[in-house]
Amino acid sequence: MVSLTINGQKVEVEPEATILQAAEKLGIFIPTFCYDPQLTLVGACRMCVVEVEGMRALVASCCTPVRDGMVVHTDTERVRMAREVNLNLLLANHPLDCLTCEKNGDCRLQDYCYLYGVSESDYKGDRKDYELEDTNPFFIRDMNKCILCGLCVRTCQEVNGAAAIEIMNRGFDSKVATAFNDPLETSPCVFCGMCVDVCPVGALTPKQSIGKGRSYELDTVKTVCPYCGTGCGLELYIKNNEIVRVKGDPSSPVNRGQVCVKGHFGTDFLKNPERLKVPLIKKNGEFVESSWDEALGLVAEKLKGVKGTELAGLSSARATNEENYLFQKLLRSLGTNNIDHCARL
Amino acid sequence: MYEKQILICAGTGCVSSGSMHVQEALNEELKKHNLQDKVRIILSGCHGFCEKGPIFIVYPEDIFYCQVAVEDVPELVEEHLVKGNVVERLLYKDPVSDKRVSSHMDIPFYSKQKRQVLRNCGVIDPENIDEYIIRGGYSGMKKALNMEPMDIINTVKSSGLRGRGGAGFPTGMKWEFGYRSPGDKKYVVCNADEGDPGAFMDRSVLEGDPHAVLEGLIIAGRAIGSDEAYIYVRAEYPLAIRRLRIAIAQAEEYGFLGNNILDSGTNFKINIKEGAGAFVCGEETALLASIEGERGIPRPRPPFPAVKGLWGKPTCINNVETFANVPLILRNGAEWYSSVGTEGSKGTKIFAITGKVNNTGLCEVPMGISLREIVFDIGGGIRGGKKYKAVQIGGPSGGCIPEELLDLPVDFDSLTAKGAMMGSGGMVVMDEDTCMVDLARFFLTFTQNESCGKCTPCREGTKRMLEILQRITQGKGEPDDIERLEKLALSVKDSALCGLGQTAPNPVLTTLRYFRNEYEAHIFDRRCPAGVCKDLLSYYIDPELCIGCRACVKVCPAEAISGEKKEPHVIDETKCIRCGACFERCKKDAVKTR
Amino acid sequence: MTNSIGEIEEAGTLLVIGSNTTETHPVIGYRMKMAQRKGASLIVVDPRRIDLAEHADLFLQLRPGTNEALLNGLIHVIIEEGLVDEEFVRERTEGYAEMEAAVKKYTPEYVEGITGVAADDIRQAARLYAQAENAAIFYTMGITQHSSGTNNVLAIANLAMVTGNVGKRSAGVNPLRGQNNVQGACDMGALPNVFTGYQPVDNRDAQSKFKKDWGVKLPTVPGLTVTEIIDGILDGKIKVLYVMGENPALSDANLNHVLEALDKVDFLVVQDIFLTETAARADVVLPAAAFAEKKGTFTNTERRVQLVRQAVNPPGDAWADWVILQELASRIGLKWNYRGPEEIFREIARLTPSYAGISYERLEKEGGLQWPCPDAGHPGTPYLHANQFSRGKGRFTPVEYQPPAEEPDEEYPLLLTTGRSLFHYHTGTMTRRSGAIDSFKPEELAQISREDAQKFGIGDGDLVKVTSRRGDVKVRVQVTEIVPPGVVFMTFHFHEAAVNRLTSNKVDPIAKIPEYKVCAVKLEKVAP
Q1: pLDDT digits (tens, 9 = 90+) for B164-216
Q2: Which are the contacts of A140, defined by CB distance < 8 A and separation ≥ 6?
Q3: Scanning A235, B411, C92, C253, which has its CA 20 to 30 A from the CA of C459?
Q4: Sequence-separated contacts (24+) of B477-483 with Cβ below 8 Å
Q5: Could you tell me which chains touch chain A, where touching means 3 or more CB pairs under 8 A?
Q6: From A44, A169, A174, residue closest to B497, measured CB to CB
Q7: In this structure, are C136 and C227 located in the same domain?
Q8: Closest by CA position to C503, among listed C454, C462, C470
Q9: Are C270 and C282 in contact (CB under 8 A)?
Q10: Tell me: the pLDDT tens digits for B425-474?
């Protein structure tokens, strides 16, 4: 273990730990944009800079390992100035349309500007001027809002492995883009949308969510994805009895927050108008709406009306364990083992 | 047996001023006089005095001809080689005494220098390994091959050698980190991505004495336990690359490279990687990424390359000049080496001196020499008798040094203390006609253009600094721009990811520190004291001098000048577009600027 | 899966055979690619040049239906080159000699002749697999949906055991289950031969346990499988069919045969969330709640039981399946009185040894538990067979290569193989009704090779009729490098081009899985 001092408080951490992790252990908050413990550390956004005694310049706490006896200050005048200037620089090149931005309330740029009292930029000058990229049905890319933290790029490369995007051009002209700046649809992108979930600002917006509610108005329910057998944990964001956004559940031991296109953007079938809402009974070749009583009565009668061996049931690989259990219990109670489901398909 | 040897400089500077044509002409002329078996032509590396190129030296008499043109060759052969008369008019003329000087040792440009690293440059044929060996080459390597790694490292440590790439990190210490990093594969990397505008120290060494660099690499390999090196050299240096390839092939042939070098059990291989010209690739982590085939973008340090470098392996990375120093240290000992220099900076440093001095070129000086000596003795003072204003040292990442600091000793720590830096050795001298705000703008244009865009302070900060500087030089500066600029510059310096971003504000900060009044003049008086910033210039006609010839009226494209014939004319400032046509046209120098 | 998803990244070698993982199990696909980037060797075996093949260290493009030959070839090389884990074979297995004798003739050259995979690639794959400290095998329906499916699985087990890659971390035999709760449906006894936790219906103890607990008389002989039920309807033996959340009218092989049965059955009840192709043929349709509209548990492919929570209300008068079943039970005269899924789960845990230690309380707290979890203090089981196999010693079973039941011939010159795409799921009941997804991938595209396109005069995007001995579909064509010459690939997501009209219902004799992966077809260009 290594011992160091942060803001006058002593802390002991593993020798591989970073200053940021040591600060976290003490409950000391350090703002970050480009940091994600699952991804390569790049130290690019420089929001997390701190002062280390004996070091010439400020250091990025997210990627600077601790040393024994290190003395760190995370909130000095010098650190605050660096962060304030940093935010000022970002704001100089970022639309101030928080009123209509989907990310309002859940935006790290907004949060930190609030924290450091930066309401508008000191710097006038050139701004990015990119067209909105709105050609796929899943999410919108507004590169004017991008702060180039690179989380999306690293997620695409290191988590998904599709490597569909990179930072194109250099310097002030840097832009997150596909090869040759082609539309995502013709790139290796598989629309998992994990880039959308890691974006700290409003550069990537899921279409499903637009106008459907502010982040602080949404309830979150953790559940399991209805698609393949991986069993990814999902976080469903709910407002007015509607799922308005889905994210991978970072606390799930299965997917650690990762998702694919179906889990991420494929839950809107729930509110498809074609959903069955009442029992139907076929009369003279036509379906007629009925009450539960009538429908269940009819089914009960038919199930009881045959010998067990003349009855068969197909259970569901999409229903819950409890429901599958009851289904086979019901059919077995009716005297048949003719129960199967699509396990073989 | 040859009776005479002629050295023709084949460095890039002299080649571009025509030395190869001079060589062809000389070949022809020698044949005409049937002297081809008596006079040997050697194409040498750079002599440093590029201002006076092509350089042409006749041995054994050591007659130093400069600015030799193809047309001069028949006379040189006829007079000097046939008749034995020195051609006076082609000798160097001392600008102070106005006397012709025949030996280069008598030229102040050379006499103040201490040419240790450049000892072979301009002396030997860089494409001939034997010439390097005759002058003691590879003896340092041979010594090192019989030493324990830690003994080599300790020798380098006690020599006091510090990295010549700019930051001045103690070389021996860096090697020790590399040596102590566990790993079965380690690399040595030579940073030859010399990118500062106007700087060509490394190019001259590579072109003029490539074996010195190879020898340094082999010694480093032996010291840290590496069997493979990369030289990362800019593709814009084709001659250096060609000479390196020749040198590597020769060294392999002599058994200095390859497996089991001279039966020592040491293996070593050197690869060349051509860089594609991004300035940031001179930053070591970006350079390593570039060798790996990734985008040349810096990575955070730590981990330092010595621990986790090329392809994740421990890597010792030094600059060309650093490696070229190493054979000397091994050959002559640490004590010999450290006898030159100051307390904290040992040995010599090569500078590329350019700008408003009489002698531009390459010079190698002992550490601790004053800036005044470099500018006024070696550089021959300010051109055209103008007044010295400042010297920008350390390239676009460096800072400027005003007149009051001219006696500053040139060493790592003194320069850093004054807000400049040693840098890799670029030195631009400015005279009174240089606008310091415009200078800062010029350097910021370069660094902003070369910012890789990875970190926010550099990507966005250099852009905004540049915009503020542009605004000021265009006369649109705002009262709080100085404060805004200073805060931004300090912040970028303090928080950028790599050396490029951390040093990019230096020109701004040093000009603000030493020439703040010029900024204030631009902003508050809407005036450029040096008369450089066009938008702040205003032309007027001195009625005392004007003879009313109407010449200026005719050339003015904006019809801004009025006045009767033989009466003093007047410029309407609201119409004037500041093109300067009248200024140039006036025979009486009556058009003035303010 | 014998092992866990979280172990993938630590494996030394991953052998992925018959699994288009990045499309069918994308998140597991991410992990495989991560493992490869971390240094694991990734071997992909598939008839198609699937996306994962692009990330593989070694890609073996075998002819469809030749898996067991290839697997035997790998074992042959491992034995020949002395790479057998002898200690494991000696201590933990039996029947090695018979298996060894069976693979004798499967030299890499012989296998090359059957599979089309170069002999040297077979050797290299065998070495990469056998020499890794931990090597894991992953497969899906590319292995099982063959008339020789059981043999394929046995051959995989042989391969894993011969190298001792069972019963340790980051190794094992890992079938990736295709549906969110297919593992759970099996665990819950939604199968003709077992009660929950694979307790055989013909086992006396099990019978008496369930009889006692449920208070009803129980049938004692195993029932019929899906394909047998369909045949049973057509034979007149099955009169009433109750379908809960399944869509055999699109998913089952030899669809025309299935549709005939669905039309024939006396009474068909379908309980679903949409009016599926199957529901449209029902006599009674019961509207059910979907995944986010109810509470319960799913069990994923790594045997992890996880809580499913309600986020929104079901639409209209739709009910959760468990509510419907309970209501129905009471009308039949069964006295069920579950207050909710948690109470049902308690009953499951009581009757199922592998679930005995699992409770909602623990799931809530611990975020999922992997069975076997025999008691409340048990942490769950990340990998199976750690010290011994369920049956004691692992048994090697000799396997012989057997060609697919139907192979291309003069009349039907092409081989059709079927599968899934990334953007759709199963019969499309959900994804075809998801606005974003369906607008992105609105139609089926049959993949054919450039060579076949040329041969049959078909261009990219042309409409063709694909015909097999059992039926035909019209579909547009994608000319691609993904499939080799002679092979057509289609998914079964689209009712407009229902590929199962073409597939064969020839089943594996043991597992009763139809041979979805191989049948013979012909192509003709048709006017749009």
Answers
A1: 987 889 999 999 999 999 999 999 999 999 988 888 899 999 999 999 999 99
A2: A132, A133, A134, A204, A205, A207, A210
A3: C253
A4: B477/B519, B477/B522, B477/B523, B478/B523, B479/B523, B479/B524, B481/B519, B481/B523, B482/B512, B482/B516, B482/B519, B482/B520, B482/B523
A5: B, C
A6: A44
A7: no
A8: C470
A9: yes
A10: 889 999 999 999 999 999 999 999 999 999 999 999 999 999 999 999 99
Q: Residue A225 is part of a domain; what is its CATH number? A: 3.30.200.210
Interchain contact B/A (3 or more Cβ pairs less than 8 Å): yes
Number of domains chain B is built from: 5
Are the beta carbons of B175 and B153 closer than 8 angstroms?
Answer: yes
A163 in C contact zone (CB under 8 Å): no
Q: What confidence tier does B502 reach under pLDDT thresholds 50, 70, 90?
A: very high
Residues B307 and B356 in one domain: no
How many domains does chain A divide into? 4
Query: Is residue B141 domain-shared with residue B264, that is, in the same domain?
Result: yes
8 Å CB contact of A43 and B488: no
A49-96: pLDDT as tens digits: 999 999 989 999 999 999 999 999 999 999 999 999 999 999 999 999
Judged by phi (left if over 0) then psi (alpha if -120 to 50, else beta), residue B32 lies in alpha
What letter does residue B265 receive in the DSSP assignment? S
Q: In this model, does residue B421 exceed pLDDT 80? A: no
Domain assignment present for residue C517? The answer is yes
Quote the domain boundaries for residue A295: 276-305
**Which H or E run includes B540?**
strand B539-541
Residue C243 lies in domain: 182-295+309-352
H-helix or E-strand spanning residue B8: strand B4-9
Shared-domain flag, residues B465 and B360? no
The A-side interface with B (CB below 8 A) comprises 41-47, 49, 57-58, 60, 63-65, 78, 81-82, 85-86, 89-90, 92-93, 122-126, 147-148, 150, 166-167, 169-174
Mean predicted confidence (pLDDT) in B35-48: 87
Q: What single letter denotes the amino acid at residue C248?
A: P
Q: Collect all residues with Cβ–Cβ distance below 8 Å to A239 and sequence separation of at least 6.
A: A212, A213, A217, A218, A219
> Residue B182, preceding bond cis, omega within 30 degrees?
no
Same-domain status, B22 and B137: no
- pLDDT band of C507, cuts 50, 70, 90: confident
**Chain A neighbors of B484, CB-CB under 8 A:** 122-123
Identify whether the C-beta of residue B191 lies closer than 8 Å to the C-beta of residue B234: no
- What CATH number does the domain containing B239 carry? 3.40.50.11540
Q: Do A332 and C22 touch (CB under 8 A)?
A: no
Pair A97, A123: CB distance under 8 Å:
no
β-partners of residue B402 are B390
Domain count, chain C: 3
Residue C479 lies in a domain: yes
Give exposure, B204-234, as e/b (b: 16+ Cβ within 10 Å): bbbbbbbbbbbbbbbbbbbbbbbbbbbbbbb
What CA–CA distance (Å, rounded) separates A291 from A276? 13
Tokens 């201590």 belong to which residue? C91
Complex ipTM, two decimals?
0.93
CA distance B594 to A278: 90
- For residue A345, the model assigns a pLDDT of 65
Q: How far apart are the first and last CA of chain C?
A: 45
Q: Say which CATH number the domain at C115 has.
A: 3.40.228.10
Q: Is residue B249 part of a domain?
A: yes
- B304 shares a domain with B359: no
Residues composing chain C: 528
For residues A263 and A223, membership in a common domain is answered with yes
The burial of B584, by beta-carbon neighbours within 10 Å (0-12 exposed, 13-18 middle, 19 or more buried), is given as exposed
Considering only CB atoms, B302 lies closest to which of A65, A123, A124, namely A65
